[in-house]
Design goal:
It is built from ten helices and twelve strands. It is of the alpha/beta class and 311 residues long. The protein has a single domain, classed as TIM Barrel (Alpha-Beta Barrel), CATH 3.20.20.70. The longest helix is centred in the middle third of the chain and has 18 residues. The protein is globular, with a radius of gyration of 18 Å. Bound molecules: ligand PBG. Ligand PBG binds next to helix 5.
Length: 311
């Protein structure tokens, strides 16, 4: 009775990686237990998630190199992989909340979340493209778009574009405070989306993602996104940034989501494989820590593992 926080399966958002092909369920080596799914195997996975009581998914696509270009034009293809994945999931499980990643990195020939020009990621031109991308997801049936790009002003722009097209019910979960973190390594392996090592291309995302040394700026970023029309604010990564979740939770009335990212997942899986940590106990301790810090929902690759225990 005196326990202040509890974990529920309904807290979890399950991230999913999707690829072209048939009967593909490709293990991701740096993320044991995670796979790249083709649209047919994705249907089976969605069924498993809903049977476990998981209510939300966050979609990412791995795009063939041949379809990548400097402006990420494939991102707005109405018949692209993401757009087809959304329809596939709506067909098999209309009740599940579909959230989609909005950023150009999986579609960019240079591996950046925005359009690169003369060695710089150009903010406003990127926002134009992100608005079109978000709209194409909404048209395909996405319930919420999740801009993870960290451009300035993109939440306001996406909200405007969605409203103008009468998608007033499509929500926005903004990655409001997303740090330039080294914990994203396994994710970039999974999607082949790391910035390329090439002249005139920034080698990191530090001009748009946040400095891990900053916390005041995180609060500012969150309040800006709230003012621009975000429905959920996300903090990312998770465990190293619990203080940020807590700081922001006192400053906003919006629900806060946390993203326990790929590197955090990989660390525990690796330590548990070696027998150095008790996998399930550490997993549940980490997940409850997010709730204690102030997060209402948790995007986590442990969603299935944790749901099995909680049920
Ligand atoms: C793309 C994006 C990234 C993640 C989510 N969306 C990678 C990045 O910004 O480089 C990372 C998620 C993870 O590590 O699990 N903008």
């Amino acid at each position: 009775m005196v326990q202040e926080n509890r974990l529920h399966t309904s807290d979890f958002i399950a991230p999913l990686f999707i690829v072209e092909g048939k009967q593909v369920k490709e293990p991701i080596p740096s993320m044991p237990g995670q796979f790249r799914f083709s649209l047919d195997t994705l249907q089976e996975e969605i069924k498993q998630l809903t049977d476990l009581g998981i209510q939300a998914v966050l979609l990412f696509v791995k795009v063939d190199a041949a379809q990548k270009d400097e402006t990420g034009s494939e991102a707005v293809n109405a018949n692209g992989l993401m757009q087809r994945a959304i329809k596939t999931i709506k067909d098999v499980a209309p009740q599940i909340l579909i959230m989609t990643d909005v950023a150009l990195d999986s579609y960019s020939s240079v591996g950046h979340d925005g359009i690169v020009d003369n060695g710089k990621v150009i903010n406003d031109e990127t926002n134009e493209q992100l608005g079109k991308m978000a709209l194409s997801h909404a048209k395909a049936g996405a319930d919420m778009v999740a801009p993870s790009d960290m451009m300035d002003g993109r939440v306001a722009h996406i909200r405007l574009v969605l409203d103008d097209a009468n998608f007033t019910d499509c929500g926005i979960m903004s990655y409001a405070a997303k740090y330039a973190s080294a914990f994203y390594g396994p994710f970039r392996d999974a999607l082949g989306s790391a910035p390329v090592d090439q002249q005139d291309i920034p080698t990191d995302k530090k001009t748009y993602q946040m400095d891990p040394a900053n916390s005041q700026e995180a609060v500012k970023e969150c309040l800006l996104d709230e003012a621009e029309g975000a429905d959920i604010l996300m903090i990312k990564p998770g465990l190293p940034y619990l203080d940020i979740i807590n700081d922001v939770s006192y400053q906003t009335q919006l629900p806060i989501a946390v993203y326990q990212v790929s590197g955090e997942y990989a660390m525990l899986k690796a330590a548990a494989e070696k027998g150095w940590l008790d996998h399930d106990a550490v997993m549940l301790e980490q997940l409850i820590a997010f709730k204690r810090a102030g997060a209402k929902m948790i995007a986590t690759y442990f969603a299935k593992d944790a749901a099995k225990i909680l049920s």
